[in-house]
Write a structure and sequence with these properties.
Elements: H1 2-7, H2 16-28, H3 35-45, H4 55-66, H5 78-99, E1 136-140, E2 143-146, H6 148-159, E3 163-166, H7 173-186, H8 194-217, H9 231-245, E4 250-255, H10 260-266, H11 272-279, E5 298-302, E6 309-313, H12 323-338, E7 346-353, H13 354-359, H14 362-369, E8 381-386, E9 416-420, H15 424-441, E10 445-450, H16 468-476, H17 480-491, H18 496-511, H19 550-560, H20 571-584, H21 592-605, E11 609-614, E12 629-630, E13 641-642, E14 655-659, H22 664-676, E15 681-686, H23 697-704, H24 707-711, E16 718-723, H25 737-742, E17 750-752, H26 757-769, E18 776-781, E19 805-806, E20 819-823, H27 827-838, E21 843-848, E22 850-852, H28 856-863, E23 871-879, H29 885-894, E24 901-907, H30 918-933
Parallel strand pairs: 4-6, 4-7, 7-8, 8-10, 9-10, 11-14, 11-15, 15-16, 16-18, 17-18, 20-21, 20-23, 23-24
Antiparallel strand pairs: 1-2, 3-9, 5-6, 12-13, 17-22, 19-21
Helix pairs in contact: 2-5, 5-6, 8-9, 8-17, 8-18, 9-15, 12-22, 19-20, 19-21, 21-26, 22-23
Protein name: 2-oxoglutarate dehydrogenase E1 component
Catalytic activity: N(6)-[(R)-lipoyl]-L-lysyl-[protein] + 2-oxoglutarate + H(+) = N(6)-[(R)-S(8)-succinyldihydrolipoyl]-L-lysyl-[protein] + CO2
Family: Belongs to the alpha-ketoglutarate dehydrogenase family.
């Protein structure tokens, strides 16, 4: 038999996958394949129990078979013809599985290119009209044996109807076959009961009626309506009810503005009267600035067959997809709190627009996080509301370079279900499949609802200007609800009067500002809910104790430097740990890396979890942290790594330090979402260089600095931004202090620039111990991380607190001081060194360690010590037009006496953050130091 098949090897070239599919069918039912193939497979298995046979050798035999040389055989033999027909049929089946979606009836407007694909024609695969009536073995669900004509009809129904499937890009055979079996066993055809169909109709009726009502009640106001995509509300209902049935306890939703108001009312149960109040400029919650109605979030508890489920719609700015990693971070925090390691209890759902999904790089970053150790959430359900248009662009040549807007999801091998938005039942079937796939494999899955946009980008926009032909089609479209209602009337599921009655009932409820029925649970008490009340209204000066007894510090410090037996450290790391032991004993000053580690150790024993992420966070970009130790003799991660902070005590809180993907925007957004949902956890994002935070500027602007004033969202995220002018050039010097200070108002964030190691210890502990949750921006000097003059005695950790201002530390007669220099960060040591070298006694130096909220009282008190000083000078290493100068000048003036003069010394104004030539760097440093120390 093997020889006979080898002689026919021209039938196998490149067709190993087809033979493997036939083998899978043989394993399920040997009688379902032709006798020739059955005999061949019997020889391979040699009579063993079919499922006990090792697969790898067999699959290799298939590959070898395809590489066999072509042999000349006698044409026209019966065996050759039967084999050829069988393989040709397998080719046709595979073609539909790969390319069938391109012929699916997905577009409600019927404008998509439907050029016939030769690959989907049986004749292309050598199947003649005569072959079409011959019964063959198949490998498709429900048809173990069938004629090619029957198989072709099956394939068109399954792959070219109102659902188009893309899953053959998945390399995992189990996942790929799961999708295949799910849809082929159903022929991609919904089979909902009459009650389920009536519920779906009710959902699309609610979606359409709300939009029409708002359009008439608030003429001309922007609402970014869902008209044309109403099936999405039916999909969301299916997700909520199906997830609840599967045991999901929380469902976190992220979406931009298209259809958001509809989701708020019809999915989350927001009262229509509250929405109307927002349209009328009367918000239900007063915030310092607030936000427009289609950016606001909402939370509710909804009944499902499996019990209550908590829904939370994340607040979202107009930067569209940026909310996606924020949602993922929030989900991860909730899963961590629950001990939900697989994502079975908390589900992220992200709703995208078509152009934004493929167009915004945030999604590449978010997908790249999906299956990593520190960021995975057990799979995300993605819904694309595919309006087939981006803003005012209708030509896909201008919106993407891929065939589908969903092609980006293939990077994580997510199955993609395209579905016609005019068929709500098909939409709901894909929802059921998506939930089941995610539950089974804990991976992302995408539903692409192909629909249209009834109005322009907003309701005041005229889309005919740029898309006349498209909008002529849209104007003729009766609407999703009408088409589906007519279908159910024809099926006898509802009467015309019942369908119309759904509209009347919903509209009457809107007139009352109510829902048709109670959809939310008002008295349900959730487990794992976080009480933010204790963090509300507390001032940043709230008194706390951050010092830790010396004995505790030394005991915990020993844990930090202890490694397992037979654990080989790199020599330089071994020396770092040895030095840390000397620091604990008081023989060396404690450096920044050790101070930071001690802060974490103490917090972990006090019940505060710690999470640190960044591109080099485990080791530390500057070789200073070493929170993760690597055995030099073992390769495997789970065997060759030791994390001392995970072994501090038996009942310690959770500690995670993770090296992130090379993406600032998505990772910082993730950590913001995480911190916003975990106020009892110290969450830190560390930039590799502070300059690199500019890659995440949208997160800083639209979430970190403004989230509280816009949405009332508290967040205790800490950002560590390495900063300092050391001659390293424009992109490795400045954390752009000025940008953060520009955004400071209403005590929204904290900006600190510690110049001593003990300051790092106290400010990190203050961030958690103090009942205040505000983002903390640490402008962290690179040079000082290991500098001996910036190290602190161990005794300072067991007393004192974070000092917002550090006064003159030298032996200077205050009465003789003529000038007081105020500065921040590492430039202090340049000034101090030059002053000492020049033996200057009439210039004092004061450090401002907290730039915002500005410590006016403390600085006034320090300046008052030098009553004879006529000049106050701000000195910074940044150029004059950058750094803190222009943002704190008025604050410095508020601390001065009327007769005193305010001066400046620093680098000259520059279009670049820093120079790239060491000689020029040194010259600039010398020049402004000379200016600062010359009276």
């Amino acid at each position: 038999m093997m020889k006979e098949l080898e002689l026919n090897s021209h039938l196998f070239g490149g067709n190993a996958p087809f033979v493997e599919d036939l083998y899978e069918q043989y394993l399920a039912d040997p009688a379902s394949v032709d006798a020739q193939w059955r005999s061949y497979f019997d020889q391979l298995t040699q009579g063993a129990a079919k499922r006990d046979v090792a697969r790898a050798p067999i699959e290799e035999s298939f590959r070898q078979l395809t590489r066999s040389p072509v042999r000349v055989v006698q044409s026209g033999s019966a065996d050759e013809a039967a084999t050829e027909r069988q393989v040709n049929l397998l080719r046709l089946i595979s073609a539909y599985r790969i390319m069938g979606s391109r012929q699916a009836t997905l577009d409600p407007l019927q404008r998509m290119d439907k050029t016939a694909l030769p690959e989907l024609d049986p004749k292309t695969h050598g199947l003649t009209d005569a072959d079409m009536g011959i019964t063959l073995g198949t490998n498709i669900g429900g048809l173990p044996r069938a004629t090619p004509a029957e198989v072709h009809a099956f394939l068109k129904q399954t792959y070219c109807g109102n659902i188009g499937l893309e899953y053959m890009h998945i390399t995992n055979n189990e996942q790929r076959r799961w999708v295949q079996d799910y849809f082929e066993s159903r022929r991609s055809t919904p089979a909902f009961s009459q009650d389920e169909k009536r519920r779906i109709l009710k959902q699309v009726t609610a979606a359409e009626t709300l939009e029409l009502y708002l359009g008439k009640k608030y003429v001309g106001q922007k609402r970014f309506g869902l008209e044309g995509g109403e099936a999405m509300i039916a999909a969301m209902d299916g997700i909520v009810q199906g997830a609840g049935r599967d045991g999901v306890q929380e469902l976190i939703i992220g979406m931009a503005h298209r259809g958001r108001l509809n989701v708020l009312v019809n999915t989350l149960g927001k009262l229509p009267r509250d929405l109307f109040s927002e349209f009328e400029g009367r918000p239900t919650t007063e915030l310092p600035s607030g936000d427009v109605k289609y950016h606001n979030g909402f939370s509710a508890d909804i009944p499902t067959p499996g019990g209550p489920i908590h829904l939370s719609l994340a607040f979202n700015p107009s930067h569209l997809e940026i909310v996606n990693p924020v949602v993922e971070g929030s989900v991860r925090a909730r899963q961590q709190r629950r001990g939900d390691k697989t994502g079975a209890q908390v589900l992220p759902v992200l709703i995208h627009g078509d152009s934004a999904f493929i167009g915004l790089g945030t999604n590449q970053g978010t997908f790249n996080l999906a299956n990593t150790r520190g960021y995975g959430t057990g799979g995300t359900l993605h819904i694309v509301v595919n309006n087939q248009i981006g803003f005012t662009t209708s030509d896909t040549r201008d919106t993407r370079s891929t065939l589908y807007c969903t092609d980006i999801a293939k990077m994580v091998e997510a199955p993609i279900f395209h579905v016609n938005g005019d068929d709500p039942e098909a939409v709901c079937l894909t929802v059921e499949a998506a939930l089941a796939f995610r539950k089974e494999f804990h991976r992302d899955v995408v539903i692409d609802i192909v629909c249209f946009r009834r109005h322009g980008h907003n309701e005041a926009d005229d889309p005919f200007i740029t898309q006349p032909m498209m909008y002529k089609k849209i104007a003729q479209h009766p609407g999703v609800r009408k088409k589906y209602a007519d279908r159910l009337i024809a099926e006898g599921v509802v009467t015309d009067a019942e369908a119309a009655g759904l509209i009347d009932t919903y509209r009457a409820a809107l007139d009352r500002g109510e829902h048709v029925e109670q959809t939310t649970l008002t008295d349900y008490k959730r487990s794992y809910a976080i009480d933010f009340g204790k963090y509300m209204g507390n001032h940043w000066r709230h008194p706390v104790t951050t010092a830790v007894p010396l004995a505790d510090l030394q005991r915990l410090g020993q844990k930090l430097i202890t490694v397992p037996d037979n654990f080989k450290l790199r020599a330089n790391v071994e020396k770092i740990l040895k030095d840390r032991g000397e620091m604990l004993n008081g023989n060396l000053g404690v450096d920044f890396g050790t101070a930071e580690s001690l802060a974490y150790a103490t917090m972990l024993t006090e019940g505060y979890a710690v999470r640190i992420s960044g591109e080099d966070s485990g080791r530390g970009t500057f070789n200073h942290r070493h929170a993760v130790l690597h055995d030099q003799n073992r390769e495997k991660w789970d065997q060759g790594v030791h994390v001392p902070l995970q072994h501090i005590s038996e009942n310690q809180a959770h500690f995670l330090v993770i090296d992130s993907i090379l993406n600032e925007e998505a990772v910082l957004a993730f950590e913001y979402g995480y911190a916003s949902s975990a106020p009892d956890e110290l969450v830190i994002w560390e930039a590799q260089f502070g300059d690199f935070a500019n890659g995440a500027q949208v997160v800083i602007d639209q979430f970190i600095t403004s989230g509280e004033t816009k949405w009332g969202r508290l967040c205790g995220l800490t950002m560590l931004l390495p900063h300092g002018y050391d001659g390293a050039g424009p992109e490795h010097s400045s954390a752009r202090v000025e940008r953060f200070l520009q955004m400071c108002a209403e005590h929204n964030i904290q900006v600190v620039q510690p110049s001593e190691a003990v300051q790092m210890f106290h400010v990190l502990r203050r961030q958690m111990v103090r009942p205040v949750r505000k983002p903390l921006i640490v402008i962290m000097s690179k040079k000082l991380l290991k500098a001996k003059n910036a190290a602190s005695p161990i005794e300072q950790f067991s007393n004192g607190e974070f000092r917002t201002v550090i006064g003159e530390a030298g032996d200077i007669d205050a009465k003789k001081v003529k000038r007081v220099i105020a500065c921040a960060g590492q430039v202090y040591y340049d000034l101090l060194g030059a002053r000492t070298q020049r033996e200057i006694k009439d210039i004092a130096i004061v450090r401002v360690e907290q730039l915002y909220p500005f410590p006016t009282e403390e600085l006034k008190a320090e300046l008052a010590k030098f009553g004879n000083a006529k000049e106050i000078m701000w000195v910074q290493e940044e150029p004059r037009n950058q750094g803190a100068w222009h943002q704190i000048r008025h604050r410095l003036e508020n601390c001065m006496e009327p007769k005193q003069t305010l001066l400046f010394a620093g680098r000259p104004s520059s279009a670049s953050p820093a120079v790239g030539y060491m000689s020029k760097h040194n010259a600039q440093l010398k020049a402004f130091i000379d200016e600062a120390l010359t009276l």
